[in-house]
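Hi R.,

Here's the chain you asked about this morning:
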Amino acid sequence: MNTSLKNTARLLGAGLRALLVLSVVCGVLYPLAVTGAAQALFSEKADGSEIGDGSGRTVGSSLIGQTYDLPKRNPDDPEEVAKPDLKWFQPRPSNGLGSNSVNLRYSLILSGATNRSADNAELITWVTEAKAAVVADNSTRSWTVRPEDVPAEAVTSSGSGLDPHISPAYAKLQVHRVAERNGLPVQRVAKLVTEHTEDRVLGFMGEPRVNVLELNIALREASEG
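And here is the predicted structure, written out as tokens:
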């Protein structure tokens, strides 16, 4: 019996020591090392890739999409659909997984896709209505958008539903409308799009893209300047 108790106590003691050592290594030292390395090597990304508006105020993250809508007439009405503020470049649709009451800047409750097939009636309705809206919103007195010119990402949400980028083609499609709404020359707005077009990662991965938040910050500076 004594031998059995001693063995049990020895095993419990070894297990407790292992628990304490692993807790310190995995729960304290490793997180501190990873956090320290991230802050030393990638401090901006480690802090959330925050973007400021030039006045020291954080207005968003370069990794998370957000909407640019007009204020609702009745903010307390969950059924009221916010209308896009057409003075700004618009992002991809954010149909995703539905609405939420926490992050009112984007209509998602979770990151994810709609998981609807290409022949799903609801998805077809979304795409059809979105294309008609893109054509109507971006056609101006001197510029007419054709339905065939509307790129796919202008009428569909991304796989995550939080994509902060649009294609250069969609950004260029919006140039005339943005220029007219802000009283700026078309050439100047087009130049902003060119300046904020990012190339493929390492020159071959992905596609060229434009960060909508960064582009809109540059647009505001151009409008105020």
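One quick note: Helices lie at 2-41, 43-46, 121-138, 168-173, 175-182, 186-195, 212-224.

Cheers,
M.
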